[in-house]
Write a structure and sequence with these properties.
This protein has 266 residues and is of the alpha+beta class. It contains six helices and eleven strands.
């Protein structure tokens, strides 16, 4: 039967660019804990996907739980019945029973998919508005095809996020922004191309803010190279929320955790 064109384009892009991967996070039965999945596609023929799957569990603060990282090489999954990239990625994960053990609820239940509709619809409307030239600043251009595809496939997978404000820069690369206006906090995702999504966060200088308004805690920014997501087995770098502008690869970091640390609803 074959996948819809947007799903096929997504997997073809990932299979052609070694080192890039798709990621998603799912809640575990243990309250507050999540499991992060990294899917590196090595081959795709329109119906079947061959991928390397890596997964690991995180605690309520988003820190990796020791000795939970596991890997399945050359995993084969039938994605011919998937209508969205989210369904296709979930089909790959479901093909590995060990990876789904302990997940809080079925990956493809109506409960998990229902929020996707409102979010992805809002994102598509925003993309169409930018494509029509609305909201662009001088020097900016409508989204390029590669960046737009990255946006759609990302929010199909992460449909429970609050719809962000979308902006397109002078190269046609789309950025998503969530913010806490009262505290001057901003969280960004930059959609370079499928499998290559970078993040950054900005906030006022701590010297100009009250102690109560400052972000708290440590943000684990695993990997600063936006071109490749590092292995989950070798993520040691971190950046402290202290007034600088930390950034990294969204493929290796849970953006929900990052935004919550900053006090932003996402």
């Amino acid at each position: 039967m074959g996948c819809p064109p947007i799903v096929s384009q997504y997997f073809k892009a990932l299979s052609m660019r070694r080192g890039e991967a798709a990621t998603l996070t799912r809640p575990l039965v243990v309250s507050g804990q999540t499991r992060s999945f990294r899917i590196a596609v090595t081959a795709f023929d329109g119906d079947m996907v061959i991928a390397d799957l890596i997964w690991g569990d995180m605690d309520g603060s988003g820190r990796r739980i020791r000795n939970t990282t596991k890997e399945k090489k050359m995993l084969t999954a039938d994605v011919s019945h998937a209508t969205t990239t989210a369904e296709a990625l979930q089909a790959i994960i479901s093909a590995c029973p060990e990876a789904t053990a302990g997940i809080a609820r079925p990956l493809q239940s109506e409960e998990t998919r229902r929020p996707d509709i409102a979010c992805i619809d809002a994102v598509k409307r925003s993309l169409q508005s930018l494509a029509n030239g609305k909201g662009l600043k001088p020097g900016e251009i409508p989204p390029n095809n590669s960046s737009a595809l990255a946006v759609i496939t990302y929010f199909e997978v992460n449909g429970t996020l609050r719809p962000p404000e979308l902006l397109s820069d002078k190269t046609g690369t789309v950025r998503a922004q969530w913010k806490n206006v009262a505290r001057g906090l901003n969280f960004w995702l930059r959609f370079n191309k499928p499998g290559d999504i970078a993040w950054s966060m900005t906030f006022p200088n701590p010297r100009t803010m009250s102690a109560a308004a400052l972000p708290v805690g440590i943000v684990r920014g695993r990997g600063v190279n936006s071109g490749k997501a590092p292995s989950l087995k070798n993520q040691k770098s971190s950046c402290r929320v202290d007034g600088r502008i930390p950034s990294g690869n969204a493929n290796a970091v849970d953006p929900v955790m990052l935004a919550k640390v900053m006090g932003i609803e996402i």
